[in-house]
Task: inverse folding
């Protein structure tokens, strides 16, 4: 898996920890991400990141802020 390999390589060269961020669904709890079947979920249930990781937006989420499909960036910090 390319993304996993990239994060592991970043960790080995920089020592940055890899963190897992679990999805939080704020809508109807009946369809919460943690309960959704793999083939029915519209988004990932967990996101793995590290400071310095390259990221790409795959949807247009906030046009005014530049969060658009194919937007690329680098993680500078995790709160």
Result:
């Amino acid at each position: 898996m390319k993304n996993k390999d990239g994060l592991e390589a970043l960790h080995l060269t920089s020592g940055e920890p890899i963190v897992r961020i679990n999805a939080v669904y704020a809508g109807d709890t009946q369809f919460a991400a943690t309960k959704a079947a793999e083939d029915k979920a519209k988004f990932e249930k967990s996101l793995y990141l590290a400071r310095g990781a390259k990221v790409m937006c795959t949807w247009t989420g906030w046009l005014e802020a530049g969060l658009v499909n194919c937007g690329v960036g680098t993680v500078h910090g995790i709160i």
